[in-house]
Write a structure and sequence with these properties.
- This protein has 13 helices and seven strands.
- The chain has helices at residues 10-27, 63-72, 81-84, 114-123, 140-153, 159-167, 171-183, 187-194, 206-214, 218-228, 232-241, 247-254, 260-288, and strands at 32-35, 54-58, 76-79, 90-95, 99-104, 126-130, 133-137.
- The strands form two sheets. It has a five-stranded mixed sheet with strand order 1-2-5-4-3, sandwiched between helices. It has a two-stranded antiparallel ribbon with strand order 6-7.
- It starts with 9 loop residues before the first helix and ends with a helix.
Length: 289
Amino acid sequence: MSESRVSVPLPVRLRFGHAAVQHLADSIRVDLLHIKGAAVDPSLRPPEMHGTDVDVLVRPAHFVALDRGMRAHGWRLHTTFFSGSPFGHAQTYLHDVWGYIDVHRFFPGVRLAPDAAFERLWVDRGSVEIAGIGCPVPSTVAQSLLLILNVARARGANPSDLDAAWHQASAERRQEIETLVAELDAHVGFAAAVGDLDEYRGERDYRLWKAVSTGGTRSEEWWGRVRAAPTLSEAVGIVVRAPLVNVDHLEYRLGRPPTRGEVVVEFVARPARAVGEAWRGARRRGAAR
């Protein structure tokens, strides 16, 4: 008997991905908030802007249970907290059926302690039905703020998110967003999105937001990560990891697991690329004066 395969459209698969992880979370009593993609209020982002993966924010105390449950149900770790982004905020998992899912332990730009920040968002949560499953989502005000913060982190990608969430918002909605910015201590990331970052030059995470929001060099980004670290031990850990090869990203670039030799070549090439980026960055800054 011949085997037949049906190609499932990406938006459909993503919706089932939301439903699958929520079904799992319900079964193991894990609190999740669905963010981005199909979970976003249509007034903020048209449904056709579906993204390429599922994003959820987990109650930090429940992360270990969720990680264990996902691995037991076919999700494989794709990138770790340390290799996924400069903020170390999420791990990416891959499922053969449901595709990619980013599990956030906090949201970049929110400086309130992760447990307290999640609880603040959880208290005002709503619910949307995705593929027949009720999925908790942040309030519309909170979704607006998360979209705004994401624009800054994504170096200006999806400018329509900033338009819908901020530029086109009513005065009342803007006031609600600014109140939530204060409650979540999200001033610096918010300022990076709306063009007021230079007002926060004295903040420890200023350099990191400057690098990620304007396309700084890799060296500037790493220095920003060191400066943004809340403790000395975390700063030391970042310095130790800086020269190491990001094997997850190398595998993604190659489309297969790298060989030991390819990892060595990448390790040797990294300093040369860093010098080149620094030189080009210096020339850009000189030309802008």
